[in-house]
Design a protein that fits this description.
Layout: H1 6-17, E1 24-29, H2 35-47, H3 61-67, E2 74-77, H4 87-97, E3 107-111, H5 119-130, E4 136-143, H6 150-154, E5 157-161, H7 166-176, H8 182-191, H9 196-204, H10 207-224, H11 227-231, H12 238-259, H13 272-281, H14 284-303, H15 309-325
Parallel strand pairs: 1-4, 1-5, 2-3, 3-4
Helix pairs in contact: 4-5, 7-8, 8-9, 10-12, 12-13, 12-14, 14-15
Length: 328
């Protein structure tokens, strides 16, 4: 469990200690916050035979089994080979629940990527949630913005796991990435929207210099209108290409702020020498249009799997040249 989980964890355990605990909890979270660690710590507490207030004792048989990674009453349901969670997985879990808990205590079912339940799987789960068994707890994890079947969500108590405040995330990252300067950590945190684990990975993978080089290539593309120049700079991996689109979006966002004379909360304060002339050369309408084109490309990359990634990016860059930069 990470420092930014502590307040929510205390609220969660307090509700159970006050006998207001719910049998099904839905944790809606942003990526990069380590929410699985929070859920697993809470699961251990539910199993613990001698909890010390809000903390597991770490010494009882259940705690020992938990740390061995082999607790017989903990059941994980998740995607397999990135496929949706199917009805057979839920049926298998339902059959398991017909048996008594092997340790005589609580049973915990952790459904990771709950947004990936097929309709049949969700309906099968719904029947189980509608008829809760004593001492059986369902812990579901899903992205904050994902659509969940309304009937499933209505049977769960929802807990929102949000990014920590900037100061807390910054303090944690200083301990994790001491080789990076305060300015580098601050810039990375802004680019990662204060999501500490994403930011840590971002810094460890040297993404800051990669992002700077990519945006320098964007500048040359902006001046020349050469679509192939920037197209060749995009990563072939979809996840990395989406990150590069976010970098471009942040560049346009900062240019809009500069246009409105907003000097604080820039995502790229280290690129001011490029953002200011870019902002001065384009109208607010052009900057907004560019941002819309980038957002559409992001949606297309995520949702239209059958279309070639290169075609989506080439179409986006062509639109930037003709509809935003006016170079066609």
């Amino acid at each position: 469990m990470f420092p930014w989980h502590h307040t929510l964890y205390q609220q969660l355990t307090a509700s159970f200690l006050a006998e207001r605990g719910h049998h099904a909890l839905l944790f809606k979270t942003e990526t990069g916050l380590g929410t699985t660690a929070l859920i697993e710590t809470f699961a251990q507490w539910l199993f613990c035979l001698q909890p010390q207030g809000a903390l597991p004792c770490e010494q009882c048989k259940s705690c020992t089994l938990w740390h061995s990674g082999n607790h017989p009453d903990f059941h994980l349901i998740t995607t397999i080979e990135n496929k949706d969670i199917g009805v057979d997985q839920i049926r298998e879990m339902t059959e398991t629940l017909q048996q008594f808990a092997q340790q005589g205590g609580n049973v915990v079912i952790f459904i990771q990527h709950a947004e990936r339940l097929t309709e049949a799987a969700a309906n099968a789960l719904l029947k189980t949630l509608e008829e809760p068994q004593p001492k059986v707890y369902f812990l579901l994890e899903a992205p904050l913005q994902s659509a969940m079947l309304a009937t499933i969500q209505s049977r769960c108590q929802t807990w929102l796991v949000n990014a920590p405040d900037f100061a807390q995330a910054y303090e944690w990252l200083q301990t994790q990435c001491p080789e990076h300067s305060p300015q580098e950590i601050e810039t990375a945190l802004r680019l990662c929207h204060a999501r500490p684990l994403l930011c840590k990975k971002f810094l460890e993978n040297d993404r800051l210099p990669q992002r700077k080089a990519f945006l320098q290539t964007f500048w040359r593309f902006y001046k020349s209108g050469d679509v192939w120049l920037l197209l060749n700079a995009f990563d072939k991996e979809q996840e990395n290409a989406l990150a590069q689109l976010e970098w471009l979006g942040s560049f346009f966002s900062d240019a809009l702020k500069a246009k409105m004379n907003i000097t604080t909360n820039w995502l790229n304060p280290d690129l001011q020498n490029g953002i200011l002339p870019f902002s001065q050369a384009l109208t607010p309408q052009q900057l907004l249009k560019g941002d819309q084109i980038l957002q559409q490309a992001q949606r297309d990359l995520r949702e239209i799997n059958a279309v070639n990634q290169e075609l989506i990016l080439a179409d986006m860059l062509t639109k930037l040249v003709s509809e935003v930069f006016g170079l066609a």
